[in-house]
Amino acid sequence: MLKKKMPETVDNENPQWTEKRLHEAKSFENSNLPESFKTVIRRGRPPIDSPKKAINIRLSSDIVKYFRSTGKGWQTRIDQALREYIILRR
Fold first, then answer.
1. What gap in Å lies between CA 65 and CA 20, rounded to an integer?
2. How many of the other CB atoms lie within 10 Å of CB of 78?
3. What is the DSSP string of the chain?
4. For residue 6, what pLDDT is reported?
5. What is the pLDDT of residue 35?
6. Angle 40-23-10 from CA coordinates, rounded to 5°
7. Alpha carbon distance 23, 86 (integer Å)
8. How many angstroms separate the CA atoms of 86 and 83, rounded?
9. Half-sphere exposure of 74 (CA within 13 A, CB side)
10. 82 and 76 Cβ atoms separated by less than 8 Å
11. pLDDT digits (tens, 9 = 90+) for 9-57
12. Which residues contact 15 (CB under 8 A, 6 or more apart)?
């Protein structure tokens, strides 16, 4: 079923863009907006200096079984165990 346009919902403060309006429009950088509006807002986690890398590794089934049995975060615990191994070897 096609929706009918409802004239009472037309937004008079924001009319439809025409070719003329597109050519008259100012770029965001050249607009009269305050500088605080022009700052870029970054979403998500902030970048870190040394991000973790996704790899494929084959481990013995008993090792995987043990770490999985320790619950959520088992992969992080494997990372910690490897880090401790490196520290002991230095």
1. 67
2. 18
3. -PPPP-GGG--TTSPPP-HHHHHHPPPSTTSSS-HHHHSPPPPSSPP-SS----------HHHHHHHHHT-TTHHHHHHHHHHHHHHHH-
4. 63
5. 80
6. 80
7. 62
8. 5
9. 10
10. no
11. 667 777 788 899 888 888 877 788 888 777 777 788 888 999 999 999 9
12. 21
CA distances from 30 to 15, 26, 34, 55 (A): 22, 6, 11, 45
Which residue in the block uniquely carries the two structure tokens 């025409």?
18
Question: Given the structure tokens 């050519």, which residue do they identify?
Answer: 23
pTM: 0.50
Question: Which residue, chain included where needed, has tokens 């200096």?
Answer: 49
Cβ partners under 8 Å of residue 68, min gap 6: 74
Residue length of the chain: 90
Residue listed under structure tokens 């008259």: 24
> How is residue 64 written in tokens?
């995987």
List the beta strands (DSSP E) in the chain. Answer: none
